[in-house]
Every structure is written in C-alpha cells, then in structure tokens.
C-alpha cells in the first residue's frame, strides 16, 4: 500500500518512505520538517523567555529604565549592551540580547505609532485654530491630568474634534515634558549666572557661592548645581560632605570677621584713591588672588592698565578710579586692549558704577565688570585693611590680613 507524505500529501514511491515522529515523509520533506520543528522549538523557548523577562521587569519596576532608553535612543541597537548591564546591576535582571530586542521592537513600534497619532492630532487641532486652548492648558496647570476631563469635553463637544482620550493624553504628556525641560534649562541658566557672578575658581568657591544664594535642601536645585560642577570639570561625588564643611567654614569665618570689627583697623576707602593708588591696590589684590600681574606701559596703554594671568588664561584689566559712570566707550576700549595684548578675557574695574548700556554691551561681549560694590566684597573676602595712622598708599604701608 502506497504511503502518503505527511508534509506534502503526495504519494511516496515504494522503498523511499522515511519515518519521522510516527509519520512518513519523503526524504527531503522529512529533513525540512526537522528544521521547522527545531525553529519552532527555539521560537517557543524564546517566547517563554520574553514572557519571563516581561514579568521580571514588571515585578522589579524596571519599565522606567526601558522607557528612558527608548526615549533617549533613536535606534534600539545604539547602547543595548549598556542597557543589559544596567538591568543586571540596578535590578538584578539578567536578559539575553534576543529577548530584550523583542521587547524593544514592540516598544519602538508603539512609540512610532504614538508619535504618528500625536502629530496627526496636533495638525488637526491647529487646522481648527484652537491650538491656543492646548497651549494655555499647558501653561496654566502643573500636571496633564489636572483638568483632563474638562479639556476633553471642551474639544469634543464644543469644537467637535474627533479625538481619543489616549491620543490627547499622549499629546499633553509630550507638551508637559517639553515644558518641564525648558523650565529646568531656565532654572539651570539662572543658577549658573548667579554663581558665576561671584567669580568662583575652585570647587570650594563654587560651593560657597551656591550656599550664599540657594537652599541646599532643595531637591530640584542640588542636581543642577552638580551639573554645573561637572560642566566645570569638578568631581561632585562628595558634594554633600563638601557642603557640610563649607557651611562650617563660613560660620567660623563669619565669627572671625566679627572679631576684626572691634580692632582699630578700617577698610580701605577706594573712592579716595588717585588713579595710581587705585591701580597699585588692584595689583596687590590680584596678587593675593594668586594671579601673575603685569603693568602695561604708562603712556599708550591701549585701553588696559594691568594684564593678569592664571591657569594659562590672560585677562586685560582696565582700572577706572573716578566718580563718573563707566560708559560704552570704556567697554569698547578694553575690548581693543584684549586684542592688542592677545588676551583671552577682558575686564573693567571701577570705583564707581556702570551705565545700563555699558552693562548690556559688557554682557554681550563677555567683559567682566566690577563696580564699587563688588570691590568692597573682595576687600571683605580678603580682609584688606589699613591702619588709621598709615594711609599713604604710595609708600605701600597697607596691611593685608589673609
């Protein structure tokens, strides 16, 4: 009796039948069936691995890390080895690359579909000229779900918008995340501007400036300060310990300053200095600040009185010891001096103040400015004083207490 091949359902010539798992096949069909069974077995095993991995990720609350990876990288292959290592170290989850790729494939496809729906919804809202409704909602509320139902009813009932709650929520989360990133960037730029206005140089200086203006217990602020330190190539790993030390130092420093207030010394009066006295004073001050200081030529100084240098950076310094306001012309002069003396930076120090236009021009051209208030802060910081009986700056009889 002729046998029928269990794969192709054709008759098998007598003597050419091959038995495999209780069924008969052509020799070629039997080999193909074996390969298919092996592949199906591997697929079934991989499917089980994927289910196990999903359960483990859910149980150990590791989806946040996966979502962050999908949001950060456009291609699932970019840093998948690092993701496997992070899952293992942080959540004690071991995953094969194949199993994790299957999960990532689905998430990337969902992300792509979600983005398409968001773009489609955004165009639909803008085409009806009601984008202001969405923008005002994002600006007014701190969370996308605050008044979500009312917003959905407004769009669907009043403006007849055909939109699903799922797509609308995705759009709102996208806009709120963007708003959060912008707020964080603005906050960081503000922190950076305030701290750098103190002209810090060491990590201790940066920490002191931070403590002076911000609350170290603010969980939103501290990470931004760490970001600034990392940007300036400082190690922020021991920041909490450093903050404690600097707070203690500032406390005892304040105590010491109080002690000095009862003696017979008083701070230098910069308003009473002549041009040469003011220049000599600045030279002494920058020397205390560990700068290498050089005078320019007395005549034809090309807009700079001192050239100071530290850590390989040269700065052209113009000293203004007069009561009138520093103007835009003075900013332009020191910029020319910066080029003339091949300096990296430019700086104007005045015993008076700067006009608004001069400050704006200085900021635009990265010119550092010290007015009388800033100079007095530096005098306090370095505790520069003069005895009542020794006011003759020309004789260099100033007393510097460090």
Shape: elongated
How far apart are the termini? 112 Å
Helical residue percent band: 55-70%
Backbone structural class: alpha+beta
Strand order of the largest sheet: 6-7-8-9-10
Count of β-strands: 12
Order of helices and strands: EEEEHHHHHHHHHHEHEEEHEHEHEE
The CATH architecture of the domain at 267-400: 3-Layer(aba) Sandwich
Mean pLDDT: 84
Strand content: 5-15%
Biggest β-sheet description = 5 strands, mixed
The gist of it:
By secondary structure, the protein is of the alpha+beta class. The chain has helices at 27-59, 63-72, 80-91, 97-127, 131-140, 148-158, 165-196, 203-213, 221-231, 239-260, 275-288, 328-340, 356-364, 372-382, and strands at residues 3-4, 11-12, 18-20, 23-25, 265-267, 292-295, 306-310, 313-320, 345-350, 367-370, 384-387, 399-400.
Write the layout of secondary structure elements.
Blueprint: E1 3-4, E2 11-12, E3 18-20, E4 23-25, H1 27-59, H2 63-72, H3 80-91, H4 97-127, H5 131-140, H6 148-158, H7 165-196, H8 203-213, H9 221-231, H10 239-260, E5 265-267, H11 275-288, E6 292-295, E7 306-310, E8 313-320, H12 328-340, E9 345-350, H13 356-364, E10 367-370, H14 372-382, E11 384-387, E12 399-400
Parallel strand pairs: 8-9, 9-10
Antiparallel strand pairs: 1-2, 3-4, 5-11, 6-7, 7-8, 11-12
